[in-house]
Amino acid sequence: MSSPAAAPDPAPYDALLLVSFGGPEGPDDVVPFLENVTRGRGIPRERLEQVGEHYHLFGGRSPINDQNRAFLGELRADLADAGVDLPVYWGNRNWDPYLTDTLAQMAADGVQRAACFMTSAYSSWSSCRQYRENLHAAVDGLPEGAPAPKLDKLRHYFNHPGFVEPVVDATLAALADLPDDVRDGAHLAFVTHSIPTQMNDASGPPEQGGGAYVRQHLDVAGVVADRVREETGREHAHELVYCSRSGAPHVPWLEPDVNDHLAALKEQGVPAVVMVPVGFVSDHMEVIYDLDTEAMATAEELGLPARRAATAGTDPRFVRAVRDLLLERAAVERGEEVARAAVGATGPMWDRCPVGCCANPRGAVPTLTGEREPIDQ
Ligand SMILES: CC1=C(CCC(=O)O)c2cc3nc(cc4[nH]c(cc5[nH]c(cc1n2)c(C)c5CCC(=O)O)c(CCC(=O)O)c4C)C(CCC(=O)O)=C3C
Ligand SMILES: [Fe+2]
């Protein structure tokens, strides 16, 4: 009789923390949420009113919290099935449950060392470092005498097969859903959140010259396009484009905007397009408003057949990737050799963000989980 395999060992971690953005849950939450997001950011009033309208179109409720609840449910089930026994917590930057409250709960529960998984896959101040600043602020705000859990951020996963493979399948499904007569010529428009060009320039470690945000997206887009070609036997031209531009009009942000891109495709005689929201891990507001509502309306006006590919969401391979990243990092922290899954040209990402990585455009703010804590720029 063979004995059951030993349960995978999460030590030295005694908790997992899901770190996310947060969103409003009803009409009265919309303004306070937007105030939380944009405090000190100089976002023009008109832009805030517009974005508020996007939320009100959906009853003042962002989909993001429910998506995180669903993800947590799947993650807990996955860990339990694999025999990994550790509690999973959830905290947000901008809405309840706030990271500050979650950290207080973790400290009260006696958590000593937690691995953090962020619902944001790429490098940049907005998508990585700002969360690390939030972790520092949350730990710093713990009540006197509460021993703070030590926190480690799990490595970036934009190029982890558990994130990329669901995107490949979703792209294939969206292509298959296009009318037969336009499918073969369809372009793939990989879409991500625009950020100020200066923020992209400062993304990644300074010694790599910046630009990591765009470079990482281009890498993933290329991998997905290659995999689609393998599966369909057709080369679909692809581009990286942007949605959700914010900020003051005179500040340059990454372009082209997805709507302008659709117009350009039409102009070039491209017969159809699949929008692949590769910058987003689930269907939050940018996806359901900026793509499904606004960009789809643009495509309709142009008479350009368009489909939107699904996000990774709660795909079991993506959920499983969190477990794999947790166990991988646990082994690293125990001093063991690990295999690190990654696709594309970038290679597996670091465990601790290097000093000066993704500098805050407004100056140094303390962070956690990097090579040097708490201030490394
Ligand atoms: C790179 C990036 C991600 C992806 C990485 C990640 O996921 O973190 C992301 C995600 C998200 N952004 C979100 C919402 C908002 N972002 C805003 C504003 C901004 N985002 C920025 C960048 C990013 N944002 C930037 C540079 C700004 C300008 C202000 C500033 O410098 O910080 C504003 C203010 C209004 C506006 O100006 O649009 C809102 C309401 C939601 C929730 C969606 C939901 O409710 O489902 C999510 C997941
Ligand atoms: Fe945003």
From TrEMBL:
Subcellular location field: Cytoplasm
Binding site for Fe(2+): H193, E286
InterPro entries assigned to the protein according to its UniProt record, in alphabetical order: Ferrochelatase, Ferrochelatase_C, Ferrochelatase_N
Known EC number: 4.99.1.9
SUPFAM superfamilies for this protein: Chelatase
Pfam name, any one: Ferrochelatase
Positions bound to Fe-coproporphyrin III: S62, Y131
Enzyme class: lyase
Pathway: Porphyrin-containing compound metabolism; protoheme biosynthesis
UniProt family annotation: Belongs to the ferrochelatase family.
Protein name: Coproporphyrin III ferrochelatase
Species per Swiss-Prot/TrEMBL record: Nocardioides oceani
